[in-house]
Specification:
It is built from nine helices and 17 strands. The protein has 356 residues and is of the alpha+beta class. It folds into two domains: 237 residues, Zn peptidases (Aminopeptidase); 89 residues, Beta Barrel (Elongation Factor Tu (Ef-tu), domain 3), CATH 2.40.30. Strand 14, helix 7 and strand 15 form a beta-alpha-beta unit. Helix 1 runs antiparallel to helix 4. The radius of gyration is 21 Å and the shape is globular. The structure holds zinc ion. The site of zinc ion has 3 residues, from loops.
Amino acid sequence: MTDTSLKFLEKYLNNAAPTGYEAEGQKLWMDYLEPYVDEFITDNYGTAVGVINPEAEFKVVIEGHADEISWYVNYITDEGLIYVIRNGGSDHQIATSRRVNIHTKNGIVEGVFGWPAIHTRDKSSEQSPKPENICIDVGCSTKAEVEELGVHVGCVITYPDEFFVLNNNKFVCRALDNRMGGFMIAEVARLLKENNVKLDFGLYITNSVQEEVGLRGAEMITQRIKPDVAIVTDVCHDTTTPMIDKKKEGLTKIGDGPVISYAPAIQNNLRELIINTAEDKKIPFQRLAASRITGTDTDAFAYSNGGVASALISLPLRYMHTTVEMVHKDDVENVIQLIYNSLLNIKNKHNFSYFN
Ligand SMILES: [Zn+2]
């Protein structure tokens, strides 16, 4: 990562890109990626793909997702308070007492998630925040006043929290899930260009929309690209912070390297190529097992087009879906290196079959 790449990362993170409204973020991402690719593909829903060697028959995807979790305005009371529903896996437990940005045609309208004072609550039967009892105050006293600000049912709501570096080597921000993915695959493209690497296959650097509501952007774009191979990157949990059961979630930790997944959707020979690459290049890595599904865009690529050889390299992260998501700078570097070096080990018409 260079100073320029970090500046891009900061700008890219500080721009809100809620699910369904990723286009502004995609423009920033394509501006950064442009010098490193031959052309772009975009689709009707906003997925963006930078392509190297577009005429090549054999196609390899490296992928992250562009969207971030948010809320929708669902109901405005006569008193001018706003009730919300989720757009993606937004967390009701962390919402109260937060500032919010409501996205309207007139621009951002600020608001706050209020919460009853500790003094006024019945200690014997305290309620925890739930989607039905949290609401946003935009400083209005009637529904008409709220509407005058440009707020209506269906407006999306994000948190204003911005990027910062904690103790020199931790990146903190909302939406590191998965803005980091888009950033890391763009860095791979930059390295390929700067190191003058000539790939003998087509590389599709893919920033998919709508992952947070069920892998939808990846489902769409994989039909368009029809790739032979897909290496997906997303975030996974650091399970060493309090109240996480390692017997259930496994042991993965920020600072200990990229996390390589084992799951039915992962093609074993592609995964072994990645593991051999890590061992060769002395890139630290961790292992994670998933039953049935990985819950990432890997599943969308794997189970498309008659089966695409797919693998998942995750960036461990603390406090997922909060406004203080945290990753380790070294892991970011190592995921970039692992994807980059794995690509160097993939050949044109690479045969991943179990039956040779
Ligand atoms: Zn997520």
